Amino acid sequence: VILFVGFLWLSLALFGVASATLWWMLHAWRTPDVMSSTSFAGTSESPAHRFSLIVPARHEEAVLGETLDRLAALDHPDYEVLAVIGHDDAGTKAVADAAAARRPDRIRVVVDHSSPKNKPKGLNTALAACQGEIIGVFDAEDEVHPRLLRQVDSTFQASGAAVVQGGVQLMNYDSSWYALRNCLEYFFWFRSRLHLHAEHRFIPLGGNTVFVRTEVLRSIGGWDPECLAEDCEIGVRLSAMGARIAVAYDPHLVTREETPGSLRALLKQRTRWNQGFLQVLRKKEWKALPSASQRWLARYTLAMPFLQAFTGVIVPLSIFMMVAVKVPVGLALVSFLPAIPTLATLAFEVAGLREFGRVFYSRPRARDYARLILGLFPYQLMLATAAIRAVMREVSGQRGWEKTDHVGAHRGAGSVAESRTAEAA
Amino acid sequence: MEDATPMRSGHQFRRAAPLESRPEPAEHLSPPAVEPDGAPYALRPTLVMYAPRRGQRIASWLAQHRRSLVVVAVLVVVVALVHGVGMNADPSPVDDEGTYLAQAWAEVFRHALTPYTYWYDHPPLGWSLIALWGWITHGFTVGHSALVVGRQVALVAQLVSVPLIYGVARRLALGRGWAAAAVLVWTLSPIDVTYGRMVYLDNLAVPLLLGSALLALAPRRGLWAMCGAGALFGAAVLTKETLLIFLPMLLWQVWQQSDRRTRSFCLTGFLAGFVLLVGVFPLYALLKGELFPGAGHVSLWQAVVFQLGTRQSSGSILDAHSQARSLFDNWRSEDPWLIGSALAALPVVLAVRRLRPIGVGLLVGLLVAVHGGYLPQPYVIALLPLSALAAVGALEWCWRWRPARIGVAALIGLAAILVLPGWARADVTAMTTNTWAPFHSAESWVEANVPRHDRVLVDDTMWVDLEEYGFDGHLNVVWYSKLGSSNNLDPSVERALPGGWKDFGYVVVTPSIRASVAQDPSGQTEVIDAIRHSRVVASFGSGANQVTIQRIEAGGTNQ
């Protein structure tokens, strides 16, 4: 009987977790009005801010050159690009120096001497050297839209925000089954979920296409050098101090990225994020949030990777158990409760893939939909593994930086030629 | 939609303009507030302005809808009077009503879905609602016929439907007066007064269907309203599976109502709500190991095959000699005007975008009736509110076209002269006649005169009452339909009583049994034999309502 009652409560809890996740995932599509409110402010005022764009790069020879060239060609009159390179990374430094030589007016190379190296330390090194009023962060493999900076400038002017978070989108959904799900995760997060966080004034920021006023950033001492999710951490700290944060999404202006090159790399990346979330949760900066509902949202969001991973794994297991083991029909029916939001999520993911295709002018094929559906359980298994790894690493004190490598799969064959042409011009 | 190449070719976007229209910036993009403490970029809790307290919201909603609320309150009183007065005396009980009550009774007192084996004849939500009502009101233990409990639930369903259909009418852009007219045309038509009072599952499904339509018409076009519409429609189908014919109507409605940018999510939400709720039914069968046919148990699969395929077809209503036609004639004799006017209005309803989903619903309903297959007696029930919306809605849309006004006014006047007197007569008759008397008398006679160990063959309407009178409901008082009827996939009773009619001492012949025997003589041979080998020991009423108690001569008792 105790087992049954326990099972009942577990089912109800999982039902609640999965339902809340679904509810938030679909925030942007709740009503047409909400949909309208989730774009950039429609203004295009003339540029008024000076930007410093920081690009931390470590062993990124393959993609950094093109990224820097593109960043140097953005449609904005007043900005600088700072490539942050480790002092022990000669290959990447050569690429960065070459780019800086091509555009000395735009690109500077900053050498980071910290040890051991990680992204927040690199960012802090660059922060000291920044001359702009607003700091933007991009990753070495990012494809940034030329009009983005102008729009962000307008958004700062219209909103008076201290922070503007733009959209990021993984594009190579047809590379592999997990790439597809990874892309959709980004799509739902930036298209929808972040807006909900902005509305409730608690936001774990993304790692790039994020813009912060330099004075605000300096006043809070920059990034936390020891946190594995420095982006999330700084978002939480900014939320707790009450900074006004604007999230704006325009599918045309999203920064394009690629998924990690292998399932293993994805697992490592997810482990790092989860561990970072865990660190932010333990750091308790979110306790300074003004309202109780915000603090609950913080607790829930930071613990979400773990809740979500276990829901995803336990649901199929419980279904199997219910069919294999004979239990009373009523209890068996209750135990299927968590399957309802899980299956509904799957249905909305199918709709999301279609929407993704519409927004980004691509047409997912039947194979992609099949991958999406069949990939549900393996992907949840991967998430659960990452969650467990994260907890184990955190408990055993392994806080090293497991970096993601990039090969440029989000850039089609055409784009190399294109960038060459741009170079020639 | 183009192919995938532009996406991969960097920044060559085919469309420069943003996809979304942007009427207003988001709240979090609003101009910065001047901070009292001068903190840079700090926030003011401006959300408070946008989210008034719940009490205020309710108060403003009430203030905004006060006229409609008064109208609805008056309508509810009218419907309660017309449907409630005399509901326990007319129309006379039909065996289906007894079936559902016995099943509700079994849920309360035996914690089972039916007193016999549940063979998936209908999904169980409908009689579970009756059981809930009976359990809350202690209706099964109060000293009246169990049928009263069912009639109460039917009345409640009718009353709940009043604000719902009014709301649907308003959301279809009908004026208050027209919406009220739609409610009255539906609830006062004699066919609804007759059928709406009876304990048919369809009557319980109608408020769920109307609630689904109401949500699908939500003016804010919210995703959760659409999910709710799907779930309510799922509940309606779990109450009476034939309501599945309204799926195209509701899909059309969701499609039409939703915004282009959120449409695919709204449709997904509707379907997810619907499928996931309805899916509980096959899941239940699966968990009981009764989804697929197998030796020694009933199955959902067999039930579906039976209902859709092998069950004796009623034919098409276009075939003058079919059962469907006689059913149709029966509906027509109750009231030809409601359905007739809806059919006449159908071209207008289909032409007006706002009303089109209603037209689709009626059209599908009509096509199914014409197509053939098994047509149940209460099929018409769910079409009645849609007919009222169609007829009144079409009139209002014509009325809006000024040159047609005189014509519309003349039509309404003519209809009032032709229809209203007949409706008034029929409604008053329904409120004042008593067709239950023979049924009550027969029950009392059995209670007083039949020994408890004698086995009695009854129609389902008496089953619960006789059980309460001390007959053992397991095998001492038995539904006639369990004796080899074609409308029964549960062989348990036939196995337990291999002698068939010879194992019974009495048969109570009611209008339902007579109708069933006349309709399907080959499926009711045991009942026919029981009647043939019996003599009347008591008779109550006369004509169509007559109930006789007959002692089976060659039969015995269960001892």
Biggest sheet character of chain B: 5 strands, mixed
In the predicted model, the low-confidence regions of chain A spanning at least 5 consecutive residues are 413-425
- Measure the end-to-end span of chain A: 76 Å
Determine Rg of chain A (CA atoms, Å): 22 Å
| Mean of residue pLDDT values of chain B | 87
Query: How many helices of chain B does DSSP assign?
Result: 25
Helix/strand structural class of chain B: mainly alpha
Going across the biggest sheet of chain A, name each strand in turn. 3-2-1-4-7-5-8
Radius of gyration of chain B: 28 Å
From N to C, what is the helix and strand string of chain B?
A: HHHHHHHHHHHHHHHHHHHHHEHEHEHHEE
- Report how far apart the termini of chain B are: 78 Å
Shape of chain B: globular
Commentary on this structure:
The complex is a heterodimer of chains A (425) and B (559). With 425 residues, chain A is an alpha/beta fold. Chain A is 57% helix and 10% strand. In chain A, helix 3 links the parallel strand 1 and strand 2. Chain B has 25 helices and 5 strands. Chain B has a 5-stranded mixed sheet with strand order 2-1-3-5-4. The longest helix of chain B has 28 residues. Chain B is globular and about 75 Å long. Chain B starts with a helix and ends in a 7-residue tail after the last strand. The chains are: A alpha/beta (425), B mainly alpha (559). At the A-B interface, helix 2, helix 6, helix 7, strand 8 and helix 12 of A face helix 1, helix 11, helix 13 and helix 14 of B.
